[in-house]
Amino acid sequence: MPEPIDPLLEISASLADIDEAGLRRRRRVVTTPCAPVAGLADRPDPVIAFCSNDYLGLAAEPSLAEAASQGAQRWGVGSGASHLVSGHYAVHDELETRLARFVGMDDALYFSTGYMANIGVMPALVGRGDAIFADKVNHASLVDGALLSRAEFIRYPHSDLAALAARLEASTAPRKLIVTDSVFSMDGDLAPLPELLALAEAHKAWLLVDDAHGFGVLGPQGRGSLAHFGLSSPRLIYMGTLGKAAGVSGAFVAGQRDVIEWLVSKSRSYIFTTGAPPLIAHTLLSALDLMEQGDTRRAHLNALIARFKAGLRLSRWQLLPSDTPIQPVVIGDNHETLAVSRALDAEGIWVPAIRPPTVPKGAARLRVTLSAAHSFEQVDRLVATLNRLEAAPT
């Protein structure tokens, strides 16, 4: 009979192991609102932050702070119950109608977070005996949603359409669901959505698109990746997050009306949780107005992306091909990546080091994210510092 393991000793030893591998996660305490210039509790002077997903610079927008204040005055600060009990307010309903119209779908369902949306949708659509086909670098919430469904979980190499087609062809599952990010969060590239939809149509499969990093950035008026590609189909299920480009909080799933009705009755992460505060929905209605009218912000953001890419002169490190605000600089070694991140920090620039298991082993990177709130001068400073650090290894 094996000796029992002391879990406290095991955790202490495991923490030492992840320290040695350069994989310990640490939080930094931010002392100012989300903005390109951030105050941090662990240093006396502010830093230029290239790490948030606030792509349109709306997180600290004064008009949204005012909308939140008005929402609190109108609706209070809590919903009191789940949506299916008494926690679904008129402003939630208005937001869902507006979101569906914004992305060109029949209906939408508002969730408290994108993670809750993803782990709630897949188990409601497929189960034992069915099959989920997922891009290998999908976000962790999509992986967890697939595992919770208990369907067969079939992964295909990143954006490899031929491999996906072969797996779909070989599957005898009665229900099939293809799942993909639209913009991959650590690489910044776009999924081949038109081709994925064609495969879904050919195999009578669902296509679930997680547009966390495309909503508000891509497509006319920021209507997202489906609008960017001009896609429409009853087989499409669309998930968008509201805490990134929209600048606030939450997420939504949009699709055919019957699909949304089904999720209301079957999505456990929607049914069994307290509804998000209605003041958030009130604020999001104003955020949608700013997104829809945000072409100037998006034009400036695209100009910043182009300037960053044109200015880098890398030989040892690799800038991955991306036309989105996510600009990954792959360094490789965990310890070197951490050292470069610390060197940037010493010069007043905050870019986080991303390491396994978030990215593959040997592919540690700096995940640079750009915002419409950044200036050209701030981006130029980042570019010059990265070029110098690469030329003189830390």
Please describe what this structure looks like.
It is a single chain. The protein has 394 residues and is α/β, with parallel strands linked by helices. 42% of the residues lie in helices and 15% in strands. The mean pLDDT is 96. Helix 2 runs antiparallel to helix 11 (278-292) and helix 3 (90-103) runs parallel beside helix 11. Strand 1 (37-38) and strand 2 (47-49) form a beta hairpin. It contains 14 helices and 14 strands. The strands form 3 sheets. The protein has a 7-stranded mixed β-sheet with strand order 3-9-8-7-6-4-5, with helices on both faces. Strands 10-11-14-13 form a 4-stranded antiparallel β-sheet, covered by helices on one side. Strands 1-2-12 form a 3-stranded mixed β-sheet.
